[in-house]
Amino acid sequence: MAASRLRKVFRYPSESDSDEPPEGIDEEEQDKVISKLNTWDAAQNALYTKAFLALALLPLPWYLNTLFGSSNGQDVLIALLGVTSLISTGYIIYFMPPRKPDPKGKRPVYVVEKEEASGPMRKYLVWITAALCGILAVNGVQIARKLGDDRAETTDPRIWRCLLPSGISYSRLVCKAY
Question: What is the dihedral of CA 87, 89, 95, 96, to 10 degrees?
Fold first, then answer.
């Protein structure tokens, strides 16, 4: 371990060293490596975008079944809020990808102007989705308290309908941060 931390002593090039190959890679190889890494990164981003989009849209049939098949007003409202939350989460995942941070923390003026001109949907959709998830989570906790059973979290589907969009949005948020 200690040997890996030792630095090489700087030496001026001399006539006798010309036979040895230079250390490191040249610019052409470096460009190839960078383009290969960029291609790999783009493929991984596309894969994860599709995976999280599927995760967000997979529970929709369960909510739509409840929305159109239930006569209880509370269940219909929970299903409607859940569908809205899941669709907006899917929209955020697919159409609003995370920006690559600038090392200095600055953005060009044209990017700032483009974001300002994009409209209120891009500006407030994340906050509206977070509010919907918060409302659903509070409702799920209220249902669990009303039932009073220790096993209520695993047995009553209404609680899962309330907590599932929050879990999906939270997982998107955590993965976006990394």
Answer: 160
Q: pLDDT of 113-151, one tens digit each?
A: 666 557 777 778 888 888 888 888 888 888 777 777 665
> For 86-95, how does the pLDDT look when each residue is reduced to its tens digit (9 = 90+)?
999 898 888 8
Give me 12's structure tokens: 């001026």
Q: How far is CA 119 from the centre of its chain?
A: 22
Can you give 21-66 as a three-state secondary structure string? CCCCCCHHHHHHHHHHHHHHHHHHHHHHHHHHHHHHHCCHHHHHHH
Residue 73: CB atoms within 10 A of its CB come to 8
Total length of the chain: 178
Which tokens go with 98? 């995370």
Give Cβ neighbours of residue 26 (< 8 Å, ≥ 6 apart).
Answer: none
